[in-house]
Amino acid sequence: MDLMFPHHESEIAQSRIANGSDSVKYWMHNNMITINGQKMGKSLGNFITWKNFLPEDHPGLTQATAR
Predict the structure, then answer these.
(1) pTM, entire model
(2) Mapping DSSP to helix (H, G, I), strand (E, B) and coil, where does residue 55 land?
(3) What are the φ and ψ backbone dihedral angles of 15, each rounded to 5 degrees?
(4) pLDDT (tens digit, 9 = 90+) per residue, 14-55?
Protein backbone atom coordinates (compact mmCIF):
# COMPACT_ATOMS: atom_id res chain seq x y z
CA MET A 1 0.00 0.00 0.00
CA ASP A 2 1.07 3.59 -0.60
CA LEU A 3 0.66 4.57 3.05
CA MET A 4 3.01 2.05 4.65
CA PHE A 5 5.69 3.09 7.18
CA PRO A 6 7.16 5.71 7.19
CA HIS A 7 4.46 7.67 5.29
CA HIS A 8 2.58 9.06 8.30
CA GLU A 9 5.75 9.54 10.33
CA SER A 10 7.28 11.57 7.50
CA GLU A 11 4.16 13.73 7.14
CA ILE A 12 4.14 14.46 10.88
CA ALA A 13 7.87 15.28 10.93
CA GLN A 14 7.57 17.65 7.94
CA SER A 15 4.61 19.40 9.52
CA ARG A 16 6.44 19.85 12.83
CA ILE A 17 9.49 21.32 11.09
CA ALA A 18 7.43 23.66 8.90
CA ASN A 19 5.15 24.90 11.70
CA GLY A 20 7.39 24.65 14.76
CA SER A 21 4.77 22.52 16.53
CA ASP A 22 2.15 19.88 15.86
CA SER A 23 -0.48 21.32 13.52
CA VAL A 24 -3.12 18.67 14.19
CA LYS A 25 -3.93 16.16 16.89
CA TYR A 26 -5.05 13.32 14.59
CA TRP A 27 -4.04 12.24 11.06
CA MET A 28 -6.59 10.35 9.00
CA HIS A 29 -6.49 8.84 5.54
CA ASN A 30 -9.23 7.37 3.43
CA ASN A 31 -6.91 4.79 1.83
CA MET A 32 -7.42 4.36 -1.90
CA ILE A 33 -10.27 5.93 -3.85
CA THR A 34 -11.21 4.25 -7.08
CA ILE A 35 -12.94 5.83 -10.05
CA ASN A 36 -14.63 3.37 -12.40
CA GLY A 37 -12.61 0.54 -10.81
CA GLN A 38 -9.21 2.24 -11.21
CA LYS A 39 -7.10 3.90 -8.49
CA MET A 40 -7.73 7.66 -8.56
CA GLY A 41 -4.76 9.83 -9.46
CA LYS A 42 -3.88 13.10 -11.14
CA SER A 43 -1.38 11.29 -13.34
CA LEU A 44 -4.19 9.05 -14.63
CA GLY A 45 -6.46 12.03 -15.23
CA ASN A 46 -9.32 10.40 -13.33
CA PHE A 47 -9.36 12.56 -10.20
CA ILE A 48 -12.26 14.58 -8.84
CA THR A 49 -12.16 17.65 -6.60
CA TRP A 50 -13.73 18.00 -3.13
CA LYS A 51 -16.37 20.23 -4.68
CA ASN A 52 -17.46 17.33 -6.89
CA PHE A 53 -16.89 14.67 -4.24
CA LEU A 54 -18.88 16.08 -1.33
CA PRO A 55 -22.33 15.80 -2.90
CA GLU A 56 -21.58 12.05 -3.22
CA ASP A 57 -23.30 11.92 -6.57
CA HIS A 58 -20.29 11.66 -8.88
CA PRO A 59 -21.10 8.88 -11.39
CA GLY A 60 -17.70 7.18 -10.89
CA LEU A 61 -17.99 6.81 -7.11
CA THR A 62 -19.08 3.65 -5.35
CA GLN A 63 -18.72 2.72 -1.71
CA ALA A 64 -16.30 -0.10 -0.99
CA THR A 65 -17.25 -2.80 1.48
CA ALA A 66 -15.07 -3.59 4.48
CA ARG A 67 -13.01 -6.74 4.33
Answers:
(1) 0.41
(2) coil
(3) -65, -45
(4) 989 999 988 878 777 767 788 888 888 888 888 877 777 666
